[in-house]
Amino acid sequence: MADYEILKKKITVITGPMGSGKSRLFKEIYKVAKKYARQKVLTFSSVHDKTCPPKTVHSRDNNSEYLPIDHDVKSLSDVIKHVQDYLDPINLKLSHIEAEYIATGVKSYEVDMIQKSLERKKNIVVLVDEVHFLDKDVTYTQIREYCRQILDLANQGPQFIFFGLDLTWERLPWKTTSLLMGIAKVIDKRTAICRFCHKSGCHYTKCIDPESLNGSYVKNPHDTEEINARKDIFFPACDKCLVDPNKIEPKPIEDEDYDELILHEELMERFNHI
Ligand SMILES: [Zn+2]
Fold first, then answer.
1. What are the beta bridge partners of residue 192?
2. How remote is the CA of residue 180 from the centroid of ligand 1, in Å?
């Protein structure tokens, strides 16, 4: 379960293989921020995620519901623009108050309260899902500039929590996730249950049918247009099953066992973090 502490870290990256509960955590953090901490939340996902309907986030655990989100985006620059658009009118009001104070040297109690209230309004929570798909055709230099802009925005009040894969199925680091991890204050590297042997604590995603990708993915590891819709060939895997050519059929998990396995994985993660 997400806790309030994660809402105080300014920039957080929650990463790990497929099936490591990232989207479930996205929904939990959304609930904590909105319902319990009563903060304004801006939510984003990638336009490239074809595994759920547009403008939704969906986790693959049992009985999961789609969470409507605010914006489907292609780039971190879109996220930055939406956050800036939210902050601009507040900053404008604050600068008027400041200009008046400089001109008159007087700030009434009421104006002081308004100023504090406006400052609090800047403390929004920004949740961005599937960040590995963002900016896949953009240079490292440009993404680094986006990272710098995010650091500047975080200094003004917003808290950013990014969710995404760390590695491709070929165990290549995803560009955007990697760079965001560079500016994060907290990185939560989650693990999954191996779908081939049901071992917990797994870090990788296995592709059981690379030929069906028509080579497009091999040519460009960041070109994921095609593989997005192929959740049937990607599964979390342990170190052994990842490289074992005989492990090409996921081992079925009965519905009644699934929740128990997820709970076990959660407990293992807690244990690993102590
Ligand atoms: Zn395994």
1. 202
2. 29
What domains, with CATH codes, occur in the chain? 4-272 (3.40.50.300)
Coil vs helix vs strand at 68: strand
Residues in contact with 23: Cβ distance below 8 Å, sequence separation at least 6, in sequence order: 57, 58, 59, 60, 129, 163
The predicted-structure confidence for 48-81, as pLDDT tens digits, reads as follows 765 666 666 766 554 566 788 899 999 999 999 9
CB 72 within 8 A of CB 45: yes
- Closest-CA residue to 235 (of 217, 218, 247, 246): 247
* 89-131 pLDDT, tens digit each: 999 999 999 999 889 888 889 989 999 999 999 999 999 999 9
CA 200–ligand 1 middle distance (angstroms): 8
- The residue type of 66 is Y
Give the Å distance between the CA of 264 and the centre of ligand 1.
16
